[in-house]
Fold this protein.
Amino acid sequence: LGWDAEFRQSGRDTEYAAAFARLREAGRVYPCYETAEELAAARAARQAQGLPPRYDRRALRLSAAERDALEAQGRRPHWRLLLADGDLAFDDLVMGPRRFAAADLGDPVIRREDGSVTYLFASAVDDAELDVTHVIRGEDHVSNTALQLAIIAALAAPVPAFAHLPLIADAAGRHFSKRLGALS
């Protein structure tokens, strides 16, 4: 492949802020104030009940006064995309039709307490704004694709084609990873 241009997510904060502002104005995101420990306890409780370990949308039940009180305590919100009910489906160019129940995935965090955006959100915004037509990656990202498509739909952006390839394993059965020093 010949490179036409190079972009770094670290240099696109203005674009992510603008996309987040559009979602916020449209009422597609909501602030959440739970700590990491509180979220872990809630996940464990759901799993103990045999439920998917997803966020229960408790922040949607907070009043404006309760949100103000949490912020007065020093808590800063992380922001989640409000998923529509139903299924998130797409046709994978390698794996064929894929379908995920939004209720099983839960509302994804797209912006952290410090204002930085998640990879999931940045990738969806980048794909839309940089005219990406095809995303080819490992099969370990299949469920991420459903959430990225939800973000892309919320942004009313064009949808790229997705292809997920089987992961390559070494002789011991471990996945190859550049982070772990795997060779080509």
Remarks:
- The CA atoms of residues 7 and 130 lie 9 Å apart.
- The chain has a mean pLDDT of 91.
- The first helix runs from residue 13 to 25.
